[in-house]
Write the structure tokens for this entry.
Amino acid sequence: MHSPVAPQQPGTVRVFTQRFSSTPLGARLARRLAVHQLDAWDAAAFGSDLSATAAVVVAELAANAATHGRVPGRDFELRLTLSPDVLRIEVSDTRGERRPPGPDALTAPAALDGGGRGLLLVASLADRWEVLDRVPVGKTVRAEIDLTPSPAAPGSGRAGSAQRTPPASSCRTSGQYR
């Protein structure tokens, strides 16, 4: 006798993958193409909250890959995965020995430090993020944005992704992994 198969939720999973040069220009292009792809998928119109949030997350992760994960002659990779419930943003580079702190070890820089705030932006905008090993070499920083509203966690003051708004400025802060 066979066990019944759990019903699957209807929906399409869309994937966009592109490699970019590990330069500031490559990071800017990654952000622009991510926003364009979300608009082409009819997932987030230009200027919408989701589009702006995704733009900041991609900009920070791509800038980190181009700055801290740069290996001369090697590119970084952006992967967007859109499912009915989640937008997953993954940025991979080939420098596995320089890992950012994970979500549990992330600390705010001193007030006068000139950088180190990029992953704090990612942590505040994404519902989840993590650092993963990349096979055969390197690392991937993955951030996920829930597309369905979630109730605020008790005492968190955060009311879910439906009410999340990105910072007024999406300028890149240059920081050091600590």
About this structure: The two ends are 55 Å apart (CA to CA).
